[in-house]
Amino acid sequence: MTGQRHTATESDRAFTEPVRLDLSDPDTLRQLWNLQRASYAVEARLINFDGIPALHETLEQLRASDESFLGIRDGLRLVGAVAWIRLPNDALDICRLVVHPLAHRRGVATALLDALDSIEPAELTVVSTGTSNLPAVELYRRRGFMPVGKREIAPGVTVTLLERKSTSAPQPLRSS
Length: 176
Prior knowledge:
Order of helices and strands: EHHEEEHEHEE
C-alpha cells in the first residue's frame, strides 16, 4: 500500500435527476450560460466553425429565450442541459443539448433525453447538429433519429437535420 488515498474527482461525482431550470434565478442562468459556452466550444472545434449562435449568446439573450430547460447537476454545478420548444404542428424541437466536457461519455445527454421523452412525449421530434459533430449525430441515431437533410450555415459548414417519429402512435386496425 502506498499510503495514497483515492479522492473523488469532478468526473467521479454522481449526477442528480434532471430538473426544470428556472432562468429567472441568476445563479442558474449563469451556470447554464457557462455550461453552454464550454459545450459549444467543443462543438465549434469539431465542426471547425465558431459562429454557433449559442456560443456568443449574452446572459440577457439566454434569459429571454422562449425555450424550456431541463438540467442535471453533479451536486455542485450544472453539468448538462436540454432545451426545447413545441412547434405549431405540435412537433417537439430540441433546440440545445449541452454537456460539460468533464462530464462527456457519462450518460448525461442520455439521461436528459430520457427525461425529455418522459415529460414531453411527441409524435415527431426534430433536432439539428453540426454534421461533423459525429458524437452528437451518433447519439441521436442511437435514439431513433434519422437524418432528413442538411443545411449549409457557412461556407463548407453544414448541420444535419434529424427527426424521430414516435413508434407509440396508434396503428390502424386490420380487417380480418
